[in-house]
């Protein structure tokens, strides 16, 4: 029967292997075939840079940010208007 490994366990095993020590012993202690370990390690090394990438902002966020800035500007103008008693527009 095949075992299912969760992502955290895979990462932990790969990191243990990358830190040194015997891969064969690591695999033996985790009941894992060395070939599987090397597949996980390859995938890990190919994709580890993604940890430092920013996820793309959804399009709605940029629209909301622009609307938020416009509303802040309007609140500032209205506050000045109320405190000075004069209309800015």
Characterization of this structure:
With 89 residues, this protein is mainly α. The chain has 2 domains: 7-52; 60-89. The protein is built from 4 helices and no strands. Helix 1 packs across helix 3 (34-47).
Order of helices and strands: HHHH
List low-pLDDT spans: none
Largest sheet: none
Radius of gyration: 27 Å
**In total, how many domains does the architecture comprise?**
2
Keywords summarizing the entry:
mainly alpha, 4 helices, 89 residues, 66% helix, Trp_repressor/repl_initiator, 0% strand, rod-shaped, transposase activity
Helices and strands, with pairings:
Blueprint lengths: L6 H12 L4 H7 L4 H14 L11 H26 L5
Helix pairs in contact: 1-3
Question: What would a concise description of this structure say?
Answer:
One of its GO terms (biological process) is DNA transposition. The protein is 66% helix and 0% strand. The chain contains four helices and no strands.
């Amino acid at each position: 029967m095949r075992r299912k490994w969760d992502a955290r366990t895979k990462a932990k095993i790969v990191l243990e292997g990358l830190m040194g020590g015997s891969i064969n012993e690591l695999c033996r202690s985790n009941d894992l075939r060395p070939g599987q370990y090397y597949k996980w390690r390859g995938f890990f090394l190919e994709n580890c840079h993604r940890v430092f990438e920013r996820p793309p902002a959804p399009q709605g966020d940029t629209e909301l940010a622009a609307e938020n800035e416009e509303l802040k500007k309007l609140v500032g103008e209205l506050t000045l208007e109320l405190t000075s008693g004069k209309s800015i527009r």
